[in-house]
Design a protein that fits this description.
Length: 188
Amino acid sequence: MFHSLWYENQKVTPMTDFISELQHEFALPFTNPVLIFTILLMIVLLAPILLKRINVPSIIGLIIAGVLIGPHGLNWIDNTHGGVEMFSSIGLLYIMFIVGLELDLGEFMENKNKSLLFGFYTFIIPLIIGFPVCYYLLGYEASASFLTASMFATHTLVAYPIVSRLGIARNQAVAVTVGGPFSPTPRC
């Protein structure tokens, strides 16, 4: 009896409780891990299918979709959620795994010096240009300038699925380029 009197006095019904709970669950950015997982899964499954129709490589579509739903786009998912970081790490490990399966180890060993040199230059040149720009022009601290400049280093593994689909993954230039990120230069 007390329960029904409370609802009458507050003019709150179980339906309004349900609606307010739904509004809380669907407030942006989403915090419900099941909802975040569902959105990410739908993007991973549907983006390649939709983008194939307009001849856009699926990896590019996934990157664009990530920007769209992220904090600087529609703000559906923020980057403070642990699940998002986990998915980004899984994506990177997946690409590295695919590269490892398809990379001809003999070709890689023949070109290891070229790969090391390529990896060194694709790290040091952006660092030499980016550090002064960030430190002197943008006024960042030294550590922030170093980290920002090192982010401009090569990300050739992102393009590997496109190269693989084109059928040129066994090319010497691809072996050198893909081997560069595996060289012992620091990466973020």
